[in-house]
Amino acid sequence: MQEQIETIYRQEFRRIFATVVRMVRDFDLAEDALQEAFAIAMQQWPEDGLPRNPRAWLVSTARFKAIDRLRKEARLDSLEDLPHEPEADTKDAEDTSIADDQLRLIFTCCHPALAPELQVALTLREICGLTTEAIASAFLVTPTTMAQRLVRGKAKIRNAGIPYEIPSHKHLAERLHAVLTVIYLVFNEGYHASSGDSLERVDLAVEAIRLGRLLLELLPHAEVRGLLALMLLHHARRATRVSADGDLLLLEEQDRSQWDKDMIREGQELLESSLLTRQFGTFTVQAAIAAVHAEAPSADATDWPQIVALYDVLYRMTPSPIVALNRAVAVAMRDGPDAGLTLIDNLLAGDELRRYHLAYAAKADLHRRLGQFREARVAYQQALGLAQQDVEKRFLEKRLVEIDAV
Amino acid sequence: MKYMMLIYSAESLWTEEERAKCMEESVQLTHQLHTQGKFISASPLHYVDTATSVRVRDGKTLITDGPFAETREQLGGYYIVDVDNLDEAIDIASKIPGARKGTVEIRPIFHLDNLPVINN
Fold first, then answer.
1. Per-residue pLDDT reduced to its tens digit, A158-167
2. What domains lie within chain B, and their CATH numbers?
3. Which chain A residue lies closest to B90 (C-alpha atoms)?
4. Chain A residues closer than 8 Å to B86 by CB
5. Which pTM value belongs to this model?
6. 8 Å CB contact of B86 and A165
7. ipTM value for the complex
8. A 17-76 residues with CB below 8 A of B?
9. Domains (range + CATH), chain A
10. pLDDT band for position A195 (cuts 50, 70, 90)
11. CA-to-CA separations, A377 to A293, A346, A374, B12, in angstroms, rounded
C-alpha cells in the first residue's frame, strides 16, 4: 500500500494539484492542503483499503483541508467563492476534467501579464514539479533568487486576478503561442546551461520535451506538434554538438551517424502531421528547416534551395533580423559565400544586429571560406568581443588561431 | 474584481478632432460596459498643464504647478470596471481608444473595508 501511495504521489501529484489550485485559487494553499491529504492517505489507506477513486478522494480531502485552513484564518469571504465539489460521474469525465485543469494551469503560469522569467519559473515549479533548488541551479541563480521569483509570480497571479482558464477561442492561438514560447525558452536554456557540470543539474531540454508531450496530449494543435518536432529534431543531434573536449561543433563538422534516428523519425512524423493541417505557424516552419538538415547525408548534400525557401516563409511570418541572418547563411550555402556576405553586410548596416555576435561570426566564416583572412580576423574579433558564453568564446578563439596558422 | 485602467499617452499626439472622436467612442464603450454590469466609473482628464501637485512636509503644505512627474506620456483619463478576472480587463483595455495611441495600465483595486458607500 505504501508503495502504491508513493507511486500515486510521484505520478499524479502535479495533476491533482492543478485541480486543487483551480478550486482554491491559491498556489501555496493548494500545495499545503494536497500535502496534508497525502499524509492522511498514508495513515488511512493502509487500514481502510484503497478508495474506489484515489484521485477524487485526494482532491476532495485537499479541498476540505483548504476550507479548514481558510476558516481558521478567517478568510471567510474566500469561502463563498469556493466552487462546489465537482461530481465526476464517469472515469472519462473525471480524466477530461483533470486534463483541462492541467491545461488551465499551464495557461495561468504562461500568462503574458507575467514577466518571461516568472512564466518559466512558475511552469517548471507548478507544472513540472521541479524543486526551487533544481530550477535555481539549472538557471545558474541562487535558490533565494528563484524563490523570490516564484513568490512574485504567485502574488501577481493572485492580486492581479490572472484567471485559471483556457483562453477563449478568439485568443487561443495567441496565448498558445505564449505557452509554446515559454517551453522553447526552457529548451534553449537547456543547451546554454549545459556547458558546466551538467551531471547533477536538471536537464531543461528533456524537461521541455516532456512539457511539449504533455501539452500535445492536452491540446493537439498544429503548432504544438511543430514545437515538439522542432525540439526533437534538435535534440537528436545533441550528442554531436560538442566535441570530446567540450568545444562547439558546427553542423558540417558533426558526426551524422551519431544522430538519434528514432528521435528524428518521430520529429518528422509530427512535422508532417502539422503541415497537413495547413494551420501551422513559425515553430512548424522552423521544424521543417531542422528536418531538411536532419535528412541530409552531409552539409554539402543538404537541400539548400529548400532551406532558403523555408526561411523566406518564416521571414514572411516573422520579419526579424535574426531570421534574415539565418537566411543569408543559407543563401551563402546555395549561391556561394559572396552572395551571403552581401546580405550580411546589408544587415549589419542596420541597427538591430550590430551587437549580435553571431552576425559577425557568420560574416567571419564566409570571409574565411573565400580566403579573405584579414577580413575574417577582424570579424572574428568583433564576434569574440560580443560573445557571452565560454563555449562560444572558445570556438571563436580556436578559429582565430586557425586562420593565423594559414 | 475591480480594476482601474489608467490611460497614458502623449497629449501632443492628438488633434482636437481625434480627441473628440476618442471621447465619443469612449462614451459608447462605457454604455456597453454598463449594459453588461461591468461599469463603475470613467472620465477623461484636462490637459496636464492644469495639474497641481500638493505635498505636506513637516506640517507645511507645498503646492507646485504641474504633474507629479514630467514624463513623455501623460495620464489622460481612467476607467474603473468590475469584471471576473484580468483577461476580461485586458479585453476592455484593448477597446479603449487611447490604447491605440498610448498605453493603458491595468491596476487591480485594493479592497479596503469601512469606506463610505455612495448610492447613486
1. 999 999 999 9
2. 2-108 (3.30.70.1060)
3. A113
4. 111, 113, 160-163
5. 0.85
6. no
7. 0.87
8. none
9. 1-83 (1.10.1740)
10. very low
11. 28, 19, 5, 50
